[in-house]
């Protein structure tokens, strides 16, 4: 009996538990009208979420989009625009390190791009014309094959017979050429022209020529000198590797190689081969290239005003231990206005400028 009673009691408890009132689920009809969500509101919220996602995606896309910077840039510049330029070049096929430094890699890439593009002067400088050409690649969705214009520098630099390191980018208008860095023996600038300035001779000789940017800058310099009431003559510009070889050999046979190398460069080591140098003189020194030119009105004006036109006195007085050449007040080297002004204001040489920048 006790077992039966226990079973009956358990069944009654189970029934009582099952019959406890449940909390009714709230249907849409039970929600007050003011709190109900209509189908239109539901779709509106979904549309807002979708619009928000699209806006966020568009903002992310804008952040990743690249465009050539609207700036003039050159080797050793450090700026956000440099990073923007690297990203723009990478977008068309290059693989440059994403930094804000205008390094040798970017100089090479700009030069390579300029060589491969029509109507651009290969300078290694990023200018307005280069930007316009780069914008066309973006507009037309084209890409570039890196190295087709200028091969990427080898891991180990080539050396001349004298043991001088050969520069890998002779087109670079800031290239350092001296007794430590030489130009390739087959390098001939492709943009040589004759500047419209006075020469003491009429023959069409190679020494009349300069690279185009330097030639136009020289024309402006001579115009400035003329406005100052001065008269100068351009004496010697471009000089080929072979011509420099002949000149140095003649000087070495007459004065010995070591002494000759204090005033005459070995082949490949002469700035005249760059097409960026010009020797100037005046009637006051009988159109000769002598130190006395530095004491003339023309020489003094040149030392003070040449930087305004992008030139420096390449071998200044008192710097012979650095340049390893004698003082030459007549020897102009084109490096662009920004660099020329800085070098002159600081009273340093191109060698010291390089050393300062790479520290």
UniProtKB/TrEMBL annotation:
<feature type="compositionally biased region" description="Basic and acidic residues">
    <location>
        <begin position="40"/>
        <end position="50"/>
    </location>
</feature>
<dbReference type="InterPro" id="IPR052179">
    <property type="entry name" value="DD-CPase-like"/>
</dbReference>
<dbReference type="Pfam" id="PF02557">
    <property type="entry name" value="VanY"/>
</dbReference>
<feature type="compositionally biased region" description="Polar residues">
    <location>
        <begin position="23"/>
        <end position="39"/>
    </location>
</feature>
<dbReference type="InterPro" id="IPR003709">
    <property type="entry name" value="VanY-like_core_dom"/>
</dbReference>
<dbReference type="Pfam" id="PF01471">
    <property type="entry name" value="PG_binding_1"/>
</dbReference>
<keyword id="KW-0121">Carboxypeptidase</keyword>
<dbReference type="InterPro" id="IPR036366">
    <property type="entry name" value="PGBDSf"/>
</dbReference>
<dbReference type="InterPro" id="IPR036365">
    <property type="entry name" value="PGBD-like_sf"/>
</dbReference>
<dbReference type="GO" id="GO:0004180">
    <property type="term" value="F:carboxypeptidase activity"/>
</dbReference>
<dbReference type="InterPro" id="IPR009045">
    <property type="entry name" value="Zn_M74/Hedgehog-like"/>
</dbReference>
<keyword id="KW-0378">Hydrolase</keyword>
<feature type="domain" description="Peptidoglycan binding-like">
    <location>
        <begin position="79"/>
        <end position="134"/>
    </location>
</feature>
<keyword id="KW-0645">Protease</keyword>
<feature type="region of interest" description="Disordered">
    <location>
        <begin position="252"/>
        <end position="274"/>
    </location>
</feature>
<feature type="region of interest" description="Disordered">
    <location>
        <begin position="22"/>
        <end position="73"/>
    </location>
</feature>
<dbReference type="InterPro" id="IPR058193">
    <property type="entry name" value="VanY/YodJ_core_dom"/>
</dbReference>
<dbReference type="InterPro" id="IPR002477">
    <property type="entry name" value="Peptidoglycan-bd-like"/>
</dbReference>
<feature type="domain" description="D-alanyl-D-alanine carboxypeptidase-like core">
    <location>
        <begin position="208"/>
        <end position="336"/>
    </location>
</feature>
<protein>
    <submittedName>
        <fullName>D-alanyl-D-alanine carboxypeptidase family protein</fullName>
    </submittedName>
</protein>
């Amino acid at each position: 009996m006790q077992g039966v009673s226990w079973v009956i009691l358990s069944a009654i408890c189970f029934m009582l538990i099952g019959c406890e009132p449940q909390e009714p689920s709230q249907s849409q009809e039970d929600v007050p009208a003011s709190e109900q969500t209509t189908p239109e509101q539901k779709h509106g919220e979904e549309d807002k979420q979708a619009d928000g996602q699209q806006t966020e995606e568009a903002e992310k896309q804008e952040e990743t989009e690249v465009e050539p910077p609207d700036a003039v840039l050159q080797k050793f510049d450090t700026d956000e625009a440099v990073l923007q330029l690297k990203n723009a070049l990478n977008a068309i096929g290059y693989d440059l390190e994403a930094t804000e430094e205008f390094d040798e890699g970017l100089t090479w890439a700009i030069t390579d791009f300029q060589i491969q593009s029509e109507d651009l002067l290969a300078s290694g400088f990023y200018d307005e014309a280069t930007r316009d050409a780069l914008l066309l690649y973006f507009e037309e969705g084209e890409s570039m094959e890196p190295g087709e214009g200028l091969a990427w520098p080898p891991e180990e630099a080539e050396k001349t017979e004298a043991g001088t390191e050969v520069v890998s980018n002779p087109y670079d208008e800031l290239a350092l050429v001296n007794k430590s860095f030489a130009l390739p023996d087959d390098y001939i600038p492709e943009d040589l022209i004759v500047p419209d300035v006075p020469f003491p001779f009429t023959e069409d000789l190679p020494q009349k020529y300069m690279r185009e940017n330097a030639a136009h800058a020289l024309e402006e310099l001579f115009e400035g000198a003329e406005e100052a009431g001065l008269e100068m003559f351009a004496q010697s510009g471009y000089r080929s590797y072979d011509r420099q070889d002949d000149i140095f050999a003649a000087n070495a046979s007459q004065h010995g190689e070591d002494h000759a190398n204090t005033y005459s460069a070995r082949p490949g080591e002469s700035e005249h081969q760059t097409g960026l140098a010009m020797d100037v003189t005046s009637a006051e020194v009988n159109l000769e290239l002598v130190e006395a030119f530095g004491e003339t009105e023309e020489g003094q004006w040149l030392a003070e005003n040449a930087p305004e036109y992008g030139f420096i006195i390449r071998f200044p007085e008192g710097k012979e231990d650095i340049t390893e050449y004698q003082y030459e007040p007549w020897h102009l080297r084109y490096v662009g206005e920004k660099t020329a002004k800085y070098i002159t204001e600081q009273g340093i040489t191109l060698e010291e400028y390089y050393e300062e920048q790479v520290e």
